[in-house]
Write a structure and sequence with these properties.
There is one protein chain. By secondary structure, this protein is α/β, with parallel strands linked by helices. It is globular and about 70 Å long. It has helices at residues 14-25, 49-54, 56-75, 90-114, 195-206, 226-239, 333-347, 376-382, 397-402, 430-442, 447-452, 461-470; strands at residues 4-10, 30-34, 118-121, 123-130, 133-139, 144-153, 157-159, 172-173, 187-191, 210-214, 242-244, 248-255, 258-264, 270-275, 277-280, 284-286, 320-322, 361-363, 368-373, 386-392, 408-414, 420-427.
Length: 478
């Protein structure tokens, strides 16, 4: 007799494993299917998805290591600390990254056991539906068909590749290969000046690579507030990243000597970039193929996403939901997690809600970039009257003491009601500071609310308060 579950989650990434845990907490009999081994030494499926295995977590580990190397190489002298020749053991750096990934993925396995979640090892796809529920085929070492009353699709996304540029994750890599170079490339090329391109470019630049980033769009970080994007471009260029906008990629050749990228620059001139390694980071596409969606009457849209209800993540098939990178909205791990919780609670009859305008975004470069809500250009485009307050980290004692005084906080508030409409940060610990803004916006706070809250001194958080005060032209330290 086949196994039967109340809730079956397809995919063990942030959206999937969190959905499974929340559903189990709510008393359901839960299973989660995962097939991707992510270079597991035993060939076993690894939980955590792209984020934990070849995305968010390993990239942040390498960013942290490269930051320490750059600090020791160039910035300790500012603190009166003299060190000898600084050397990098790249193999040890990568081993540290791998150890962190293993610890995190093993932690999810522990949580599954704790919450009595059944892990189905293999690729899951729909076979049909009966009175008992949906039939799901698990194609793994042990093939079986299980039944589930409710199904949550959380299969995530994969790197988008460009035609005629074969990615082997050795010479030409996507995010997977870009996290595990066996040596530090003398010259590194990156196609795409988005989040992944900037983060991986920053990692290898800090440890000695000469990095050139080629971007097809004419505008740098077009989704980011223009003021932040302009500041980021200035700072990243100063650090040594060669960022070229408005290029058109032509033929790419790879051989034993390296990679040659032929491209046309923004002025229309033919150019060549010769590099030892090339990273292709031009976005991601949803993993919605091979799910057997047609067998339950579902189709994907023209971009491969599964259409869902904007408020419940429900598909057109009753009892089938989809979350994370396979549906509309930003491809962010924390967005997927929130949607996973939302769906589990909806299945339980609760009435949860997600305000997508209050989901924060982060780019983990140095300085970090983080934002939540609307940008100035969005407010102008929508005809919304607003007021802006901006305060620099250069006027903050804590930032100066840390030697991290670049960047600023900008707060945008409604001109009449003072409600916070957007917060934009470029500077130290922006990924942590943005949480205060997200909380404030969830509670429909006014800039005055943050301005009246006593912030610890000295702290980086004071810059948030000063920016709130600045919306009313009353910053205290400027």
């Amino acid at each position: 007799m086949s196994q039967s579950f109340d809730v079956l989650v397809i995919g063990g990434g942030p959206g999937g494993y969190i959905a499974a845990i929340r559903a189990a907490q709510l008393g359901f009999k839960v299973a989660c299917a995962e097939s991707n081994a992510y270079d597991d030494p035993k060939g076993e499926p690894r939980l955590g998805g792209t984020c934990l295995n070849v995305g968010c977590i390993p990239s942040k580990a390498l960013l942290a290591s490269s930051e320490e190397f750059e600090k020791a190489s160039h910035h300790l002298a500012d603190h009166g600390i003299t060190v000898g020749s600084v050397k990098l053991d790249s193999n040890k750096m990568l081993a540290r990254k791998d150890a962190i990934v293993t610890k995190m993925t093993s932690g999810i396995q522990f949580l599954f056991r704790k919450n009595k979640i059944t892990l189905l090892k293999g690729h899951a796809s729909f076979e049909g539906k009966s009175a008992e529920g949906y039939q799901i085929k698990i194609d793994g070492k042990d093939k079986e068909i299980v039944t589930a009353k409710n199904v949550i699709i959380a299969t995530g996304s994969k790197a988008r590749h460009l035609p005629n540029i074969p990615v082997d994750n050795v010479l030409i890599s996507d995010n997977v290969g870009g996290l595990k170079f066996d040596s530090i490339p003398k010259k590194l090329g990156v196609i795409g000046a988005g989040v992944i391109g900037l983060e991986l470019g920053s990692v290898w630049r800090r440890v000695g690579s000469e990095v050139t980033i080629l971007e097809g769009l004419p505008t740098f970080l077009g989704a980011v507030d223009e003021g932040l994007a302009k500041e980021a471009h200035k700072l990243f260029t100063k650090q040594g990243l060669d960022i070229q906008m408005g290029v058109k990629i032509g033929e790419v050749k790879a051989d034993k000597k390296g990679v040659v990228v032929n491209y046309t620059d923004s002025a229309g001139k033919a150019q060549k970039l010769a590099c030892d390694r090339l990273i292709v980071s031009v976005g991601r596409v949803p993993n919605t193929d091979k799910l057997g969606l047609d067998k339950i009457g579902l189709k994907v849209d023209e971009r491969g996403f599964i259409p869902v209800d904007d408020h419940t993540c429900a598909t057109a098939a009753p009892g089938v939901y989809a979350v994370g990178d396979v549906v509309r909205g930003p491809m962010l791990a924390h967005k997927a997690e929130d949607e996973g919780v939302l769906v589990a609670e909806i299945i339980a009859g609760q009435k949860p809600h997600i305000d997508y305008n209050c989901i924060p975004w982060v780019i983990y470069t140095d300085p970090e970039i983080a934002w939540v809500g609307k940008t100035e250009q969005q407010l102008i485009g929508a005809g919304i009257a607003y007021k802006a307050g901006q305060f620099p980290f250069a006027a903050n004692g804590r930032a100066l003491g840390m030697g991290r005084s670049e960047g600023f906080v900008k707060i945008l508030a409604d001109a009449k009601t003072d409600e916070i409409l957007g917060v934009h940060i470029i500077g130290p610990n922006a990924s942590d500071l943005i949480a205060e803004a997200a909380v404030a916006m969830e509670f429909k706070a006014a800039a005055e609310d943050i301005a009246r809250i006593c912030h610890p001194h000295p702290s980086l958080s004071e810059v948030m308060r000063e920016a709130a005060l600045a919306t009313d032209s009353r910053a205290l330290n400027m």
